[in-house]
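Example record

The entry below shows one chain as it appears in the dataset: sequence first, then structure tokens.
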Amino acid sequence: MNDYEEATLSVFGTGGSPRKNGNTDVLLRQIALGVEEGKIPVRTVHLRDVFFQPCIGCEKCRKDRICTGLVDGMSSLYPAIIGSRGMILVCPTHNYNVTAWMKAFIDRLYCFYEFDDGVPRGWSSRLAGQDRKAVITAVCEQDTRKDMGFTLEAMRLPLEALGYGIVDEMAVFRVFHRGKVRDREDVMEEARALGRKLAASLRG
């Protein structure tokens, strides 16, 4: 049996913004409230509050099955990630992509992969096959998906590779000033509905 098959009916959510009480924080909370309306517990973490380093490519996780090359704030997040069937990622657009905090977080999920010895190496994920689900949200001040760049893709593709089914994604445009997304009632309801949709999907 896969020793990572410990996930419960719960959700881990994280935001990748360096700005406290900004739009990312507001959206993460709204999505979490929607999940909680579905009677599923949620733990949320802001990456700016976690001291952790980017992946250093030491490959120790290939043997140890978890990141042991670095012992830092990510070490405390791994049990929550492993133990939750659901995930929420919310991130602002920085220079057409996710923030450095979100990129470092995603790279540190590399430890969940297993590789064979071929070239190119075949791979699988220890989180796959467990009916894990996720929703993702990106927010930017610009008007279009083009201006948002790769923000959604940079979250979606790694989660899919890890074995998460992406229930839905949300792009929020034309908002910049701290927390002003609260004034967008349509966006607030859409975010909450996204959380409810994740909860419903997890319940099957």
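Notes for this example: The chain has one domain: 8-203. The chain has a mean pLDDT of 95.
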